[in-house]
Amino acid sequence: MAEKKEEFVVSDRRRFAPEGDLRTDVPVIEEEKTVAPPLVVTPSPAPAAPAEAQLAEPAEQQKEELPPPPTAAEQQKQSADYKASGKKMDDMFANTPGGKGGMPEMTFERLVESFYMSALIQLGARSRSCCKTCCSNCEWPGLR
């Protein structure tokens, strides 16, 4: 059986040359554009008075459902309780082992150590639990 080779023709349909000039040797093909029929909106006659009444009813229901605002004394008590709980949390963090009450000073040495430890963790040389609390039985004693 003889095989027939189909000819494959590539035609450049770009309208502009690589220099940016309009090409004259390319036939301009008009694309068919389908025009959608214009939408006609017909306003439906709706009574305006019932719509306003419906809007007024939910506003009245919301007023009835809302509890009364807190008094000044209640607001002061809530503010004091909030500040006390924040101070309690700060004290708890400061008293935990390894807690220094604040962030340590960031130095170039700490930056390099951070990159180094991240690389070790990503490469699997250290586990995350070992890095959280480095102890005397650590497999990397020089990294403390």
Radius of gyration: 38 Å
User: Level of helix content?
Assistant: 40-55%
* N to C succession of SSEs: HHHH
End-to-end CA span: 79 Å
Tell me which oligomeric state these chains represent.
Answer: single chain
- Category from helices, strands and their pairing: mainly alpha
- Uncertain parts: none
Please give the count of helices.
Answer: 4
How much of the sequence lies in strands comes to under 5%
The counted number of beta strands is 0
Please describe the biggest sheet, giving its number of strands, its sense, and whether it closes into a barrel: none
Quick structural overview:
With 144 residues, the chain is mainly alpha-helical.
Describe this structure in words.
This protein has 144 residues and is mainly α. Helices cover 44% and strands 0% of the residues. The chain is flat, with a radius of gyration of 38 Å. The model has no long low-confidence stretch (mean pLDDT 74).
Strand and helix layout:
Elements: H1 48-65, H2 72-95, H3 108-123, H4 128-132
Features:
mainly alpha; 0% strand
